Amino acid sequence: MSSYLITGARIVGGEVADLLLDNGEIVAVGTNLEAPAGVETIDAKGLIALPGLVDLHTHLREPGREDAETVLTGSRAAAVGGFTAVFAMANTDPVADTAGVVEQVWRLGREGGYADVFPIGAVTVGRQGSQLAELGAMADSAARVRVFSDDGDCVWDAALMRRALEYVKAFGGVIAQHAQEPRLTQGAQMNEGALSGVLGLTGWPSVAEEAIIARDVLLNAHVGSKLHICHLSTKGSVEIVRAAKARGLDVTAEVTPHHLLLTEDLAASYNPVYKVNPPLRTKEDVEAVREGLADGTIDIVATDHAPHPVEDKDCEWSAASPGMIGLETALSVVQHAMVDTKLLTWADVADRMSNRPAEIGQVGDHGRPLEAGAPANVVLIDPAVERTVVPAESKSLSRNTPFEGMTLPGRVVATFLRGTPTVLDGMPAR
Ligand SMILES: NC(=O)N[C@@H](CC(=O)O)C(=O)O
Ligand SMILES: [Zn+2]
Ligand SMILES: [Zn+2]
Question: In angstroms, rounded to a whole number, what is the distance separating the alpha carbons of residues 237 and 284?
Fold first, then answer.
């Protein structure tokens, strides 16, 4: 294993210091550190060092849709985006609802070596919403699953949701809900409002998200378990979670980069690259989720990286699959929407994109402060450069980025996973 001396980085955006990485750990942080023999030096003047990013919500598509993404390609894209850990959603084919499937995904991540891949287990068998999956067996497996979700679909049955929340208490697991009331969103295509009427696309009303979040907050209060809200997107949802936290309830929430930046007007192009669940909302909603992320109501940013091959996107809006890729642009979007607007500091970004997601996902080797003794999961970013998003440059197998052509700030220069570079000079290191 190689050793690295990173010199002159601004640690989490603050003081300038050197970092010595050896044997998979950060062995020293300080000024004017000497490079022992055989250590490679990386000049990080002007760069910011953050703890390796952690994505609690990624779709890697393997097994089943290896034409859209694989564990290897998705985790490579994650590394390029500055991530050292990703949580892989369960809506694969077969569904990740048994110990066997989650162990397979976990092992593929280890073999790839680009990021630690932590599988999320399905809540219900086949994500069909009728019978609890083997949550305990997945928790006890080599993959040590702690996060469970039927993402892609809502656990809409209140009795089943209650049972799931109760069941995971035994091992401190968390249920991550895709909050979408199915009856209120039948055939839904975009945010419900004046614009959906004009465009003639069936509306996906805010209340369909908020009604489930409110219900689940109450269920969780009753049961005393852990609830996490996936891709929260409306002003009303922020208010419900804020009230829940004020009551001291164990509820956490995430927002995606696209919901922090993009609005429903993009649907007027009828370009399905802007079709996503939950849909892009209004300017007022974007302001509310930014504020919620800034004041801690929303705990984390999670990408909901949802790769789709051209044939599933290059079609009429209503026939297209919902979802957008986001691993490689997440940090730039957050810099643009939250840091450059002074809503978050870089230390806050480390909290929302590394420390807190690692805590919610219960993976202790990630999201640690950059201190001696911590695992050497580190990302170096250059906040001063700008780049234009070019889909063909993506390391994902899919190209469905909604940020095509946009000029965004910041670039990931290097990523280290347990001291081994996964990215150098902005490119995969292997
Ligand atoms: N977000 C999406 O629009 N799509 C996701 C599923 C999901 O996150 O709900 C997908 O798997 O493609
Ligand atoms: Zn979802
Ligand atoms: Zn998702």
Answer: 12
Question: Is the domain of 27 the same as that of 63?
Answer: no
Whether residue 184 is contained in a domain is answered as yes
Angstrom distance (rounded) from CA 177 to CA 161? 9
Provide the 8-state DSSP code for 132: B
Q: What range defines the domain where residue 319 resides?
A: 52-359
Last residue in a domain, options 334, 359, 384: 359
* Residue 365, domain member (yes or no): no
Whole-number pLDDT of residue 2: 83
Ligand 1 centre distance from Cα of residue 151 (Å): 7
Active site residue 43: no
Give the CATH number of the domain where residue 396 resides.
Answer: 2.30.40.10
Cα separation, 384 vs 370, whole angstroms: 22
Q: Would the ipTM clear 0.95, i.e. be above it? A: yes
Q: Ligand 1 — pocket residues by CB below 6 A?
A: 59, 91, 151-152, 178, 276-277, 304, 306, 322-323
**Alpha carbon distance 383, 45 (integer Å):** 12
Q: Which of 301, 328, 428 is nearest to 81 (CA)?
A: 328
**165 plus 199 within the same structural domain:** yes
- Joined tokens for residue 190: 């975009």
Residue nearest to atom 2 of ligand 1 (CA): 323
Q: Which of 91, 228, 229, 317 to mutate to test the pocket of ligand 1 (most atoms within 8 A of CB)?
A: 91
CA of 259, nearest ligand number? 1
* Atom number in ligand 1 closest to CA 178: 9
Q: Is residue 147 part of a domain?
A: yes
What is this structure's pTM?
A: 0.98
Mean pLDDT over each residue of the chain, to the nearest integer: 98
Question: Looking at 22, 97, 116, 304, which residue is catalytic?
Answer: 304
Same domain, 379 and 260: no
Structural domains in the chain (count): 2
| Ligand 2 ion: nearby residues, β-carbon < 5 Å | 151, 178
Given a cut of 70, whether residue 378 has pLDDT beyond it is yes
In the predicted model, is pLDDT for residue 430 greater than 80?
no
| 316 class by beta-carbon count within 10 Å (0-12 exposed, 13-18 middle, 19+ buried) | exposed
What are 236-288's pLDDT values in tens digits? 999 999 999 999 999 999 999 999 999 999 999 999 999 999 999 999 999 99
